[in-house]
Amino acid sequence: MTYTLSQISKTLNLDFNGNDIEIDGIHTLAEASSSQLSFFNDAKYAFQLPKTKAGAVLIDSEHAKLLPVSTIALITDEPYLKLAYASKLFAHTLSTVSEAPKMGSDCDIDESVRFGSGVVLGENVTILAGCYLGDHVSVGSNTILHPNVTLYHGTKIGRNCIIHSGTVIGCDGYGFAHTKQGEHVKIYQNGNVVVEDDVEIGANCTVDRAVFGSTVIRRGTKLDNLIQIAHNCDIGEHTLCAAQVGLAGSTKLGRNVVMGGQSATAGHLEVGDFSTIAGKGGVTKSLEGGKTYAGFPAVEIKVWRKMQAALMRLVKNR
Amino acid sequence: MTYTLSQISKTLNLDFNGNDIEIDGIHTLAEASSSQLSFFNDAKYAFQLPKTKAGAVLIDSEHAKLLPVSTIALITDEPYLKLAYASKLFAHTLSTVSEAPKMGSDCDIDESVRFGSGVVLGENVTILAGCYLGDHVSVGSNTILHPNVTLYHGTKIGRNCIIHSGTVIGCDGYGFAHTKQGEHVKIYQNGNVVVEDDVEIGANCTVDRAVFGSTVIRRGTKLDNLIQIAHNCDIGEHTLCAAQVGLAGSTKLGRNVVMGGQSATAGHLEVGDFSTIAGKGGVTKSLEGGKTYAGFPAVEIKVWRKMQAALMRLVKNR
Amino acid sequence: MTYTLSQISKTLNLDFNGNDIEIDGIHTLAEASSSQLSFFNDAKYAFQLPKTKAGAVLIDSEHAKLLPVSTIALITDEPYLKLAYASKLFAHTLSTVSEAPKMGSDCDIDESVRFGSGVVLGENVTILAGCYLGDHVSVGSNTILHPNVTLYHGTKIGRNCIIHSGTVIGCDGYGFAHTKQGEHVKIYQNGNVVVEDDVEIGANCTVDRAVFGSTVIRRGTKLDNLIQIAHNCDIGEHTLCAAQVGLAGSTKLGRNVVMGGQSATAGHLEVGDFSTIAGKGGVTKSLEGGKTYAGFPAVEIKVWRKMQAALMRLVKNR
């Protein structure tokens, strides 16, 4: 989808009187191209303004001065709310239109499986009953989808993967702007999910599509059941997540990380390579790799054990 | 379904020798009408006995004296267990009988979608592959059901809602009476779920139907993935629940409450308007609105932070 | 599936020069029969070596001396990794081949339900839309499967059970061996799940099949929604698990155990009969029956309450 900036400005009720340009998407200040719209609503990213390549930016009048001359400012006091309204313009149109997928040899597809348009399957793909593959989904060779898996539009699954029943990949990330009246306005999630080769995902997991760009699960990672992966997470190679783990948005796990059952992260943080988070642990800030952490807020497990022992002594002394 | 009280008494093996009446349902002492059966099994509700409008009440002989003359007492030492047996009489009969729904203009319904009887859809409703809508479900205009959503009988979904894949709405609440031998007898959940307008519910959530009356999710509320809403919860307008939140039965959240990821409530309590519960928090009693809480049991977040700091000092002092 | 031991050795790149035998499966040292392969990778099970009835064992050269003369040693430094490769030989072959089930009278099966081969249903079984029953699944009389339930191959469901929507039974347990390069090699889960009579399982639960033998949910147990039961768990009769409970592998719950919402166990432990684990509790070691526990690590609830009170005093004293 492409709109002129003047069309977008009109939809958002914003002033615009410049040389019009074509806009074909939305992205962050750091990632946006000259045909994309971006937004600025957090002072900590001000340093990115002079360097942005965005065609246009939703921004307050004060910070607009920091933009390069090649970037058009759309002035607003509510850039994040305007972003939300703009995101709808680029949302995928859902429909029941179905088309036979392109597929390699030796695929075994149950007759009840439903496809959107433009689906591509490799060789020897097995898709059992009740699965749904939305528009432009791709699935690599030798991958197995167990019954009742849902892959939203644009999801890319690698080779030699196993996806267990009830798992949903590519559902919308949880992102909203808020009006002054306390209403929540959906930020349409126009990114996707990429699952690399040799990944296994358990049953009834949820992997959210990115708001921009991709949520990524890297090669060789294995997820257990009932796991939540929020939008824009990046899960390193050969990482293990036990059941009921929850990763908040933009969590970056390194390679060979181990997350114990029911552990979680707070989002926008990084867990280093070869770290272990014990079961029920809650990570609230970035953690150095190669160590084992426990508790909430998560600390090194030896510290956590001392905390438990200290608590127990307090009780015993009374 | 309607039964005479004498039929019900016979089924429950209870004595009844009075003027027979017709009973068409079961409800609480406070809510039951003169054509409904109620029950009394908790002394803290004794104050409701003189005021009940119930046609009949399952009750012990001592408390029966407190009932108004217009209410018939069915005397039993095990009123809750008898309630469980009675609830089965009013349970919905499940079947595969299917009927084309009534629908407004511009609906887009995948051919694999299965309907019970008496389903009503508004205009411009989109229902993708593999969804199931049970008997007498209604879905408001412009609402989208992503693939593989299940709506049990009697579920009411409002306008402009989005329900993501794998979510189950209207499944049975978790309610059992217990025999003296330690067996659990199902209390059939004969209420329903009402989802108001502008609600978004993430993937693989579960929203239980009410035992009596309705579980309600009010206007503008947004739920993330893998969330459990138990029977008879009432979630206020514009409330936000992050992934893996769990609300126990009869929790009442106010408006614009924010529940962090993996946080939970213990049920039969109230969280005030504009409260925030931090991630992993566990609410064990009703909380005043407008504040931020954390920890388990949840306390004000500034207190929780002091507790964590105190624990850390205990460790460092050794 | 049956292989000669020489075939298996060749596949695993192991030396074998003895009297060849036929191998038809894999099991633990304690349970393997003379036609099964076993493995030894944990010194704490060395006491089982002299008594094993296994036909052959993957084992290091030192411990191999402890095996009875009737058992063949397949010498390897990486017995667990070799086990993983061997497990694939015995994995069930997935396919979309479908066959009408054998069924008793008065069954009500939605036309969208998909069956593998060799499915057997009792009388008066109700299966609603979108369910999948894999090869050799059996379902007892009077059992109800709500829409979109998935039963993997070999799952056995008893009589008078209720399985709610989106629940997945028999998905693979989470078991991997690890290469020296940090890659994870799937241990194919060749056991199954057995659900006894009078069990109710809520919506969007996941019950993993056993790696060997069966994961068992015993008579009269009731599970709420979004619960994870890992491979080889054994859940006693009349046990109750509230929503979002997670049981790690080989957990044994006694009879009439109560697990509160979001509580969990660490696996390979036993919770005694008539125990209660409070909500959010985390069980890290075996617990004596008849008591109530809370916290993480779970302790008796009265101790946990004292710990919370002590923490609160620390804060108030400052």
UniProtKB/TrEMBL annotation, chains A, B, C:
List GO terms (cellular component aspect). Answer: membrane
Q: Name one GO biological process term.
A: lipid A biosynthetic process
**Start and end residues of each UDP-3-O-[3-hydroxymyristoyl] glucosamine N-acyltransferase non-repeat region domain:** 20-88
Instruction: Fetch the PROSITE patterns from UniProt.
Output: HEXAPEP_TRANSFERASES
**First-tier enzyme category under EC:** transferase
Q: What is its EC number?
A: 2.3.1.191
The catalytic residues are H231 (proton acceptor)
According to UniProt, this protein's pathway is:
Bacterial outer membrane biogenesis; LPS lipid A biosynthesis
GO MF annotation: an example: UDP-3-O-[(3R)-3-hydroxyacyl]-glucosamine N-acyltransferase activity
- Which controlled-vocabulary keywords does the entry list? Acyltransferase, Lipid A biosynthesis, Lipid biosynthesis, Lipid metabolism, Repeat, Transferase
Q: Which InterPro entries match?
A: Hexapep, Hexapep_transf_CS, LpxD, Trimer_LpxA-like_sf, UDP_GlcNAc_AcTrfase_non-rep
Catalyzed reactions per annotation? a UDP-3-O-[(3R)-3-hydroxyacyl]-alpha-D-glucosamine + a (3R)-hydroxyacyl-[ACP] = a UDP-2-N,3-O-bis[(3R)-3-hydroxyacyl]-alpha-D-glucosamine + holo-[ACP] + H(+)
ATP-binding: present as a keyword of the record?
no
Q: What biological function has been recorded for the protein in this entry?
A: Catalyzes the N-acylation of UDP-3-O-acylglucosamine using 3-hydroxyacyl-ACP as the acyl donor. Is involved in the biosynthesis of lipid A, a phosphorylated glycolipid that anchors the lipopolysaccharide to the outer membrane of the cell.
Task: State whether it acts alone or in a complex, and with which partners, per the record.
Answer: Homotrimer.
Family as reported in the entry's similarity comment: Belongs to the transferase hexapeptide repeat family. LpxD subfamily.
The name on file for this protein is: UDP-3-O-acylglucosamine N-acyltransferase
Instruction: List the gene name.
Output: lpxD
